[in-house]
Amino acid sequence: MIPPAGGEPITLEVALRRFEGAVDALEAAIERRLEVERQEAALAQQLHVLGADRSRLADALDGAHARADRLETANDEVARRLGSAMETIRAVLAAHER
Predict the structure, then answer these.
(1) Are 2 and 15 in contact (CB under 8 A)?
(2) What is the spatial distance between Cα 26 and Cα 21, in angstroms, rounded to a whole number?
(3) 59 near 65, Cβ under 8 Å?
(4) Best label site of 18, 26, 43, 96, fewest CB within 10 Å?
(5) DSSP string for 25-58
């Protein structure tokens, strides 16, 4: 028996139970830590996927903006040509009426 610092002696059996309890607590703490690390790894992977999606969407948005700009330019050109054609038709009609 090992006498504690001011009390009854501690039997080997009690000491072993305390030791086993401490080992169990340590194992549980290690498992919790490993689970936290697994969750952090999963979150890091999700963050990577979200970043890749963001880049892909940004590229698609840039492409859509470029296409919209080209369509706007083409629309302006068509409107200009239609205006010119209308003026020509008006001039021909006016000349024909005279």
Answers:
(1) yes
(2) 9
(3) no
(4) 96
(5) HHHHHHHHHHHHHHHHHHHHHHHHHHHHHHHHHH
Task: Determine the residue type at 70.
Answer: R
What are the distances in angstroms from CA 5 to CA 2, 8, 10, 16, 61?
A: 10, 9, 10, 18, 74
Count of other CB atoms within 10 angstroms of residue 1: 10
Distance CA 83, CA 53 (A): 44
Residue tagged 């890749």 (tokens): 52
CB 48 within 8 A of CB 41: no
Instruction: Read off the amino acid at residue 92.
Output: V
What per-residue confidence (pLDDT) applies to 2? 52
Q: How many angstroms separate the CA atoms of 82 and 14, rounded?
A: 100
Handedness of CA 43, 46, 51, 52 (dihedral sign): positive
Tokens of 6: 């001011």
pTM of this prediction exceeds 0.90: no
